[in-house]
Amino acid sequence: MSTPTSTKPQTVAVHAGSRLTGSKSQPVVPHIQMSAVSFFESSDELDEALDGKDYVYSRIAAPNAALLEEAVAALEGAEACVAYSSGMAALRAVFDAQRFQPGDTLVMPADGYGVTRLLFKNLAERTGARIEALLLSEPSAIERVRALRPRFVLAESITNPLLRVPDLAALSQVCREVGALLAVDATFPSPYGQRPCTLGVDYSIQSTTKWLNGHSDALGGTVSGTRERLAPLRAARLLNGDVLGPFEAWLTLRGVRTLPVRMKVHAENAAHVARRLAACPLLSRVHYPGLPDHPDHAVARRVLHGGFGGMVAFEIQGAGRPECFRFLEAVKLARAAPSLGDVGTLVMHAASASARRMTPEERRAAGIGESLIRVSVGLEDPDDIADDLIAAVSEAMNR
């Protein structure tokens, strides 16, 4: 039996990364290969394995991680993929591969994930590189990148937590014009909602902990791109040891199998919840790219597919941190947790969680206020989700 050649996401998700070469026996569900080291009867075969041509030591290559890499690359529409022990490890690997020199400029989103911002700030200080933080979804961002002529640009497909959507096709074009490499953290839409490599992006980064795994039971991260672009990352991983363990790889690949059907419902539920929230008088603003009044709605329709993702954010009218904390305690169906992508609905206070590592000045510049709540919409009945959120807002505001 040969591997299906279909590129349709439902088929790719079920079948990609399911067969290891070299055996006639192929289990329906891959085994978890726990051994960190293997031996060979032939010294020549051992020698070749130490060059990565077979599995001999899991820091060099491991079967479960290799299957996951194959599956994610297929979903991303990329030539290759490298898996890491976490999404942050994947981001660190991309940064290190650039070999920045003093005076180099790198651009990153001003309104993106706070921990990524802090990581890149710390790394840039060591290399002497200069960071320019831009609102990459703003129309002026393209000209700013053209004027800055950076070596490297990091974007987020959908920003965390304000859910802005940059035009990746236009950003890719200007990066090519100025000779910059473009990396995109595409975690929020998942490969079901966007395949950045098909839009001209050099590195597509996933925190597999989120939608790809889908069950909040395994950390991981991936970088996808061309084989040539990823070769230095793979070589560096061999030395740094940021490898994904077999259990985590196996659990994540299990999640990949249902990604399209899950993401379809997550997106449908999020759209329904966003519409319900938009009608709630206790909220001053609802952030969701699928709403017609979202500032990037037209862009989102062009660069996203399969819906507008499973994330919603909203601002509680007149709320500060105390009221938002009361909201977190008041939800009954949703769970207050600093992650996303689970089958169940998760909520968090953005300023104290995803933006916790940003300075107050950085949060103000990004537009992340104390009243902002981020929601990872789950697979429950969408009216149950909306009712729970609205009731918790009412209780938090004593109305």
Q: Topology of this protein?
A:
Elements: H1 9-15, H2 43-49, H3 63-76, E1 80-84, H4 87-97, E2 105-109, H5 114-127, E3 130-134, H6 141-148, E4 152-156, H7 168-178, E5 181-185, H8 190-193, E6 203-207, E7 221-225, H9 227-240, H10 246-257, H11 259-278, E8 283-287, H12 297-303, E9 311-316, H13 321-330, E10 335-336, E11 346-349, H14 360-366, E12 372-376, H15 382-396
Parallel strand pairs: 2-3, 2-4, 4-5, 5-6, 10-11
Antiparallel strand pairs: 1-7, 6-7, 8-9, 9-12, 11-12
Helix pairs in contact: 1-3, 3-10, 4-5, 6-7, 11-15, 13-15
InterPro entries: Cys/Met-Metab_PyrdxlP-dep_enz, Cys_met_metab_PP, PyrdxlP-dep_Trfase, PyrdxlP-dep_Trfase_major, PyrdxlP-dep_Trfase_small
Keywords: Pyridoxal phosphate
Protein name: Cys/Met metabolism PLP-dependent enzyme
Taken as a percent bin, the fraction of beta residues is 5-15%
| Count, helices | 15
Poorly predicted residue ranges = none
Overall 3D geometry?
globular
How are strands sequenced across the largest beta sheet? 1-7-6-5-4-2-3
Report the CATH C-level class of the largest domain.
Answer: Alpha Beta
- Which structural class do the helices and strands define? alpha/beta
Distance between the termini: 62 Å
CATH superfamily of the largest domain: Type I PLP-dependent aspartate aminotransferase-like (Major domain)
The level of helicity is 40-55%
Largest sheet: 7 strands, mixed
The total beta strand count reads: 12
Mean pLDDT: 95
The count of domains is 2
The CATH topology annotation of the largest domain reads as: Aspartate Aminotransferase, domain 2
Radius of gyration: 21 Å
Order of helices and strands: HHHEHEHEHEHEHEEHHHEHEHEEHEH
